[in-house]
Amino acid sequence: MRHNHRLALPKILALALVVFASATAFAADAGASMKDNMLPVPVENGFSMPGYYLWCPSVIKVGDTYHLFASRWPASAGMGGWTSLSECVRATSKNLLGPYKFEEVVLQKRPKPAWDNSRVHNVKIVKSGDTYVLYYINSANETGYAWSKSITGPWTRCDAVAMKGSNPAILVRPDNSIYVMNRWSVTDKTTNKKFNRAIVFLAKTFNSPYEVQNNSENVLPNNAELEDPCIWWANNQYNILVNDWNAKATGTQKAGAQYFSKDGIHYTLMSKTPVFTKDITYADGAKETLARRERPFIYVNEKGEAIALFTACLPKGGGDARIIAQPIKPYTPDNK
Fold first, then answer.
1. Which residues are within 8 A (CB) of 240 and not within 5 positions of it... i.e. 6 or more apart?
2. Which helix (H) or strand (E) holds 89?
3. pLDDT tens digit string along 153-168?
């Protein structure tokens, strides 16, 4: 039987165009990321302490004062000092962008057999009802919390690990139930390399059992990896900003990648363009390229608009790690 190639070719071309259009639509941005709303960094901003590395910023407003919680360890120990010397500190400012003034050491590691006997790291502060809850990790896959009726303590710690995973991103929902995205580091049996998947936990209250969702499967699309997620609610959806581990989302190692989800399980990449990189532009026109820029934290105002990005920053060529606060022109995701 002879095939009519003159008839078949147009059909093949038409099919190819459909496939190309589908692929293009898949690759297109889902909406406007906050990248275009990022503003220059004020010259005086954030939080620094001579002689210390500061990491893991998290900010909450109480009355007319902003309270910044962060991880801290001696600069003399270098970047690796976090593994055994990290502690939680609190600083305050009347201005969201700072500069912040050190107030106190909040939590330190405890002796064995306490679950948090190695370090207090990856701190995240939230408020649930009338209670302040401070989440933090011990080892790489152990997250717990402390709580207090006052932002200045005293703090009561949970007796055991609350959930597996690290880098907790905490969202207190209107009914005071807790949604958590964690980084779960596992070893790929095929490549024998570590894989950083995003997993989700739910709890009815902050001091209820935390139950893993989705069978601990990665909730990021295209099996993307992450580090340092932060989360906020806007446009009737979960919004997260993460460090793009292995550059699978943006093409830039550890750049800021923004995702959203309507159900908290199925996430979509907002844009392949990084929200932030290691390059900083200041309000006076000066520029700086950092050695490391990690641990993003998005501060959201009463309207649900993102208005500031806090990141932990290590300068090139020496110097103590500090927290940089970058203003954002009020931003709400516009995806449908």
1. 169, 181, 229, 230, 231, 258, 259, 260, 261, 267
2. strand 87-93
3. 999 999 999 999 999 9
